[in-house]
TrEMBL record:
Positions of the Fluoroacetyl-CoA-specific thioesterase-like domain: 17-119
Name of this protein: Thioesterase
Pfam families, per database record: FlK (PF22636)
InterPro entries membership: FlK, FlK-like_dom, HotDog_dom_sf
Highest taxon of the lineage: Bacteria
Length: 127
């Protein structure tokens, strides 16, 4: 890593819910609200942005675990803020707590664990 991450490092993003983010399976709409699957994607994305700042050219991050609680439905057009905070650092594992807000209401929360590995090791694992 270029620099050490510290507990408390934060990053946030904002997204607006679109109909492409609705709960659906195999193209079948289940509910016209922000899906849990999309929430997980955004949780990983905001967490990844924290490690992008510290990766060496020879390193890459991989998702290792996601824990999520989807607390409230969110409709199309809603602006969401996702905030990731580093809460754990164990060897090459980075754990972030993620909160998802709609205005002042928490609509989701969870943790994302990423592992930083040499790209060569990842390529070997894939092969």
């Amino acid at each position: 890593m270029k620099q050490e991450l510290t507990i408390g490092t934060k990053h946030s993003i904002q997204i607006t819910v679109t109909n492409k983010m609705f709960a659906q399976f195999e193209g079948e709409l289940v509910h016209p609200v922000y899906s849990t699957a999309t929430m997980v994607y955004h949780m990983e994305w905001v967490s990844r942005q924290i490690i992008l700042k510290v990766l060496e050219e020879t390193e890459e991050g991989m998702g290792a675990e996601v824990k999520v609680k989807h607390l409230a439905p969110v409709t199309e057009g809603t602006l969401l803020t996702l905030e990731a905070t580093v809460v754990g650092l164990k060897k090459n594992f980075i754990i972030t707590k993620v909160l998802i807000f709609s205005k002042d209401r928490v609509v989701g929360e969870g943790e994302v664990t990423q592992v930083i590995l040499p790209k060569s090791k990842i390529n070997t694992m894939i092969d």
